[in-house]
Write a structure and sequence with these properties.
Strands 1-2 form a two-stranded antiparallel sheet. The chain is elongated, with a radius of gyration of 29 Å. 79% of the residues lie in helices and 1% in strands. The longest helix is centred in the N-terminal third of the chain and has 47 residues. It is built from eleven helices and two strands. By secondary structure, the protein is mostly helical. Helix 1 packs across helix 11, helix 6 runs antiparallel to helix 9 and helix 6 runs antiparallel to helix 10. A hairpin with a 5-residue loop joins strand 1 and strand 2. It has one domain: ABC transporter type 1, transmembrane domain (ABC transporter transmembrane region fold, Up-down Bundle), CATH 1.20.1560.10.
Length: 367
C-alpha cells in the first residue's frame, strides 16, 4: 500500500514536469487521446445500431442506414487520421521532456559544489541508475502515459456501452482484471528492485569493459597483461547480474498466470450468459454482438491498462530516484562572499594520510 501511494505521489510530481516541458503540445495530445480512446466504444455501438437497423429493414421497417453510413465514415476517418498526428506530438513532447529531465539533472549537479557526496558509493549507484535511465525513461513514461490515458477512456466508454445491456456486466469485467493488475504492479516493483540491486555490478562491468577496450588504457592494459583478468572480472559481474534478472523475469512470467486464467473464465461465463439470454429473446442480435465485441475489447483494454500502469509504476521508480536527487540538500555551499585566490606560489600539505581498499587492505597509514 505504501509503495502504491508513493508511486502516485511521484506521478503527481512527474506529470507537471512533463507539462512544463511542452504545455501546448501536451494539452493537444491529451485531447486527441480522449477522442482516440472513445473510438472503440463508438465502433461497438455503431455495430449494434447497424445490425438492428438491418434486421428492422429486412422485416419491412424504417431504418436510417444513410446516417449510419455517415457515422461509420466519420469513425473511420478519426481512426486513420489521428494516429500520425498523435505520433508526431508524442515524438516532439518526448524529446522536450527528455531534454528537460537531463537539464534538471545537470543543474542539480552544478549546485552540488562539495566533494563529500562523490565519496559515497550509494550516491554513485544512484547516479548510475539516473545516467542509464535519463536517456530513455522519460520517453518510456510518456509512451506509457499515452497508452494509459487511451486505455482509461476506452474502458470508460465501453463501460457505458455494456451497461446498456446490464449494469453489472462492466463491473464483472473490471473485477476479473483486478488479480492480474495487482500481480503486475507487484512484479514491476520486484523488477525495479532487482535493477537497483545490480547497479554495483553494472558499474563494475562498465569500468571493466571501458578499461579493456578504450584507447587511453590500451598500452597499460597490454603491458600488464590485464585483458584476461578484466575479462574474467566482467564475466563474474555479468553472471551475477544475469542470474538475478533471469530469476525476476521467470517470476514475472509465472506470477500473472492465475490472473489470466481467472479473466478467461469470466469471459467464458459472460459469453455463455449472452447466448442464453439471446436464446430466450431477452437480447437482440445487435445486443449479442455488443456483448461479444464489447466483452473482448473491454477485457483487452482493462488488461492493457493494468500492464501500462504496471510498467508506468516501474518507470516512476526511476523518477523517485530523480526527485530524491533533485531534493538533495548540499552539505557544502558557495560562500556569500567568496575569498579571492591569493597571489604567489601556493602549497598543499598532506599530513597523517591513510588509505584503504574496499576489502580493508591498507595502502597508506599515517604518512
Amino acid at each position: 500500500m505504501k509503495r502504491t501511494l508513493r508511486s502516485w505521489r511521484t506521478l503527481a510530481r512527474s506529470v507537471p514536469l512533463l507539462w512544463r516541458a511542452a504545455p501546448a503540445q501536451v494539452t493537444t495530445l491529451l485531447l486527441l487521446l480522449v477522442v482516440q480512446g472513445a473510438v472503440p466504444a463508438l465502433a461497438v455501438y455503431l455495430t449494434k445500431l447497424t445490425i438492428d437497423a438491418i434486421a428492422t429493414a429486412v422485416q419491412g421497417g424504417e431504418a436510417s442506414l444513410v446516417r449510419l453510413a455517415l457515422l461509420w465514415g466519420g469513425t473511420a476517418a478519426i481512426t486513420h487520421l489521428l494516429p500520425p498526428v498523435v505520433q508526431m506530438l508524442q515524438g516532439n513532447v518526448a524529446e522536450l521532456f527528455t531534454a528537460k529531465v537531463n537539464l534538471e539533472l545537470m543543474r542539480k549537479s552544478e549546485a552540488l559544489v562539495g566533494l563529500d557526496l562523490l565519496e559515497d558509493p550509494a550516491f554513485h549507484d544512484d547516479l548510475q541508475v539516473l545516467r542509464d535511465g535519463a536517456r530513455r525513461r522519460p520517453l518510456n513514461m510518456l509512451v506509457l502515459l499515452v497508452y494509459s490515458v487511451r486505455n482509461v477512456v476506452s474502458a470508460v466508454s465501453l463501460t457505458a456501452v455494456l451497461a446498456t445491456l446490464a449494469w453489472w456486466v462492466p463491473l464483472v469485467i473490471v473485477a476479473s482484471a483486478i488479480p492480474y493488475s495487482v500481480a503486475t504492479l507487484r512484479l514491476r516493483e520486484v523488477g525495479w528492485n532487482a535493477l537497483l540491486s545490480r547497479s554495483p555490478e553494472a558499474r563494475r562491468m562498465e569500468y571493466e569493459s571501458r578499461t579493456a577496450l578504450s584507447y587511453e588504457h590500451a598500452a597499460e592494459v597490454r603491458l600488464n597483461a590485464m585483458l584476461p583478468w578484466l575479462r574474467q572480472r566482467y564475466e563474474r559481474s555479468f553472471n551475477a547480474a544475469h542470474k538475478t534478472m533471469r530469476r525476476v523475469r521467470a517470476k514475472e512470467a509465472l506470477g500473472v498466470l492465475p490472473g489470466i486464467v481467472f479473466a478467461v473464465a469470466v469471459a467464458v461465463g459472460l459469453f455463455a450468459w449472452a447466448v442464453f439470454e439471446a436464446s430466450r429473446g431477452a437480447l437482440t442480435v445487435g445486443a449479442v454482438v455488443v456483448v461479444v465485441q464489447g466483452l473482448s475489447q473491454m477485457q483487452n483494454e482493462v488488461i492493457s491498462l493494468a500492464e501500462s500502469v504496471g510498467y508506468l509504476f516501474e518507470r516512476l521508480l526511476f523518477f523517485e530516484k530523480y526527485f530524491e536527487f533533485v531534493d538533495v540538500e548540499p552539505n557544502v555551499r558557495d560562500p556569500a562572499e567568496p575569498r579571492p585566490v591569493p597571489d604567489g606560489p601556493l602549497e598543499v600539505r598532506f599530513e597523517d594520510v591513510s588509505f584503504a581498499y574496499p576489502d580493508g587492505r591498507e595502502a597508506l597509514h599515517g604518512v
